[in-house]
User: Which sequence fits this backbone?
């Protein structure tokens, strides 16, 4: 990690940087070899709506969006790739048996919808968190874009600034990069920005 002196000779700030760098490289490698399971994908599709009630159509649409994003980033999804929806439906059966959620019919059109047990939401969030290390960069970039008044013409500097501000705001929640990105050129040339931009734009 770029240190050629004994640990005891490092200043406090240097030790902190060393630990953060090591954590970054460790988590990067773990993410690189990790596999998203169908329960992970199903849980993310449920809790991403920020609602206790999720229409089945919305659930299936979220599965499609997440799976396409993960494939684009080269993240492996376990299970039958040709029928992810059916696999995720099977994963829901496990959630039903554990009382994470139940089903009901929409009184207006009789469509199926899922009702989350808010007392067990944290269990679903646990599964969903497997996707965080894979999708945080596109998520922050999308947030920065949606904060703009218009998507027709957006100043790049404005988006880059908001992206960086969000990253700094959350730097104690997630492991982002081994070395801080200070300038505009640092950000735009970084693999993280490229990853996010290619996925969202």
Assistant:
């Amino acid at each position: 990690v770029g240190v050629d002196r004994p640990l005891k000779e490092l200043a406090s700030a240097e030790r902190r940087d060393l630990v953060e760098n090591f954590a970054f490289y460790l988590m990067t490698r773990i993410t690189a070899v990790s596999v998203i399971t169908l329960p992970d994908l199903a849980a993310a599709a449920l809790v991403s709506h920020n609602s206790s009630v999720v229409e089945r159509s919305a659930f299936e649409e979220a599965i499609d969006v997440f799976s396409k994003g993960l494939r684009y980033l080269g993240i492996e999804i376990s299970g039958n790739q040709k029928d992810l929806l059916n696999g995720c439906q099977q994963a829901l059966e496990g959630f039903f048996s554990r009382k994470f959620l139940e089903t009901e019919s929409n009184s207006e059109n009789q469509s199926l919808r899922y009702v989350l047990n808010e007392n067990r939401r944290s269990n679903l969030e646990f599964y969903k968190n497997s996707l965080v290390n894979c999708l945080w960069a596109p998520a922050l970039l999308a947030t920065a874009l949606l904060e703009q008044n218009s998507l027709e013409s957006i100043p790049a500097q404005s988006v880059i600034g908001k992206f960086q501000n969000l990253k700094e705001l959350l730097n104690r929640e997630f492991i982002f990069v081994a070395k801080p990105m200070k300038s505009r050129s640092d950000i735009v040339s970084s693999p993280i920005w490229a990853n996010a931009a290619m996925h969202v734009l």
Observations:
- The chain is about 60% helix and 10% strand.
- Residues 178-182 have pLDDT under 50 and may be disordered.
